[in-house]
Amino acid sequence: MPPIDLRSDTVTRPDEAMYEALREAPLGDDVFGDDPTARRLEERAAELLGKEAALFVPSGTMGNSIAIAVSTRPGDEAIVEASAHSVLFEVGGAARLWGVQMLPLAGEGGAVPVEAIRAAVKPRDIHIPRTRLVILEQTSNLAGGRILPLPYLREVGELRRELGLGFHLDGARLFNAAVATGVPARDFAACADTVMFCLSKGLGAPAGSVLTGPRAAIDEGRRVRKLLGGGLRQAGILAACGLHALERNVARLAEDHANARALAEAVRAAGIPGVEATPPDTNMVYVRVRGAGPEDYRRRVQDLRERGVLALAVLGKALRLVFHKDVTAEEGRRAARVLLEVLAAAPGAGSEGGSEGG
Question: What 8-state DSSP symbol labels residue 274?
Answer without folding.
Answer: T
